[in-house]
Specification:
Layout lengths: L14 H6 L6 H11 L7 E3 L6 E3 L2 H13 L4 H10 L3 E3 L4 H4 L4 E4 L25 H5 L4 H6 L11 H84 L1
Antiparallel strand pairs: 1-2, 2-4, 3-4
Length: 243
């Protein structure tokens, strides 16, 4: 009698083992994909409507809350540079209006919501221009000179683009800091106005109390004046009778 092979039933692997079953790619790409699978982050960062890009909807909240949790730092410029190193590009889409003018959309041809298997195609770019530096410094053939001439490599983010991104992020951070300072100043002024209004109301009540006291005082003085006039008339009348 032929013995049937037995099959061992495995339990659902824990989260760490699930991460190990992902296609062979860098930890950065794995964390990026896991971050977008976490729906608790969707109000800050999520896949685009078509699943072929991802959108950072709130850069400040993303920098403050999600970067430290997923990537152990809180530097958005560093995050963008890391994306560029893996050939992700910031793009403009028709959905920018939906997520706001300050949203950031990034795309890679092999980074899709429903194509986990394609993650292994996402590799860190190698700066090919550096390989030809020795030959060009020794006066090599024209091919070496052409590579080291500084012409951009197709698909690679240039230093100028990275510098522009850093400059935009620095400007945004500066404007955000100024906005925070203006907000704090406005709050201080608003509190001062509230306190001034309270003091004015107190002074108005005190002024009303003083007016009431003055009126009562005048009434008292009038009564006293009438009493004195009566007494004078009385004594004058008594004196006349005595005479």
């Amino acid at each position: 009698m032929k013995r049937e092979p037995t099959h061992q039933i495995h339990s659902v692997p824990p989260l760490k083992e699930q991460e190990d079953t992902m296609p062979a790619t860098s930890d950065f790409v794995k964390k990026l994909y896991k971050m977008l699978e976490d729906h608790t982050f969707s109000h800050v960062v999520s896949w685009g409507p078509q699943g072929d890009c991802f959108v950072v909807k709130d850069m400040n909240e993303f920098t403050k809350s999600i970067l430290p949790r997923m990537f152990k730092h809180s530097n958005f410029a560093s995050f963008v540079r890391q994306l560029n190193k893996y050939d992700f590009h910031k793009v403009k889409t028709s959905d920018d209006a939906q997520f706001g003018e300050h949203s950031w959309t990034f795309r890679h041809p092999d980074f899709h919501a429903d194509r986990r298997d394609a993650l292994e195609n996402i590799k860190r770019k190698v700066p090919a221009a550096r390989k030809s530096l020795p030959s060009s410094s020794n006066g090599g053939h024209s091919g070496g000179r052409g590579t080291s001439s500084g012409s951009p490599i197709p698909g690679e983010t240039s230093t100028a683009e990275l510098a522009t991104t850093d400059s935009l992020l620095a400007s945004h951070s500066s404007l955000q800091a100024q906005n925070d300072n203006l907000f704090a100043t406005n709050e201080t002024l608003r509190n001062q106005v509230v306190r001034a209004e309270e003091r004015i109301r107190v002074l108005e009540r005190q002024y009303g109390d003083v007016l009431v006291e003055m009126v009562n005082f005048q009434k008292g003085m009038a009564q006293q004046d009438g009493l004195m006039q009566g007494l004078i008339q009385y004594f004058l009348g008594e004196g006349g009778e005595c005479l």
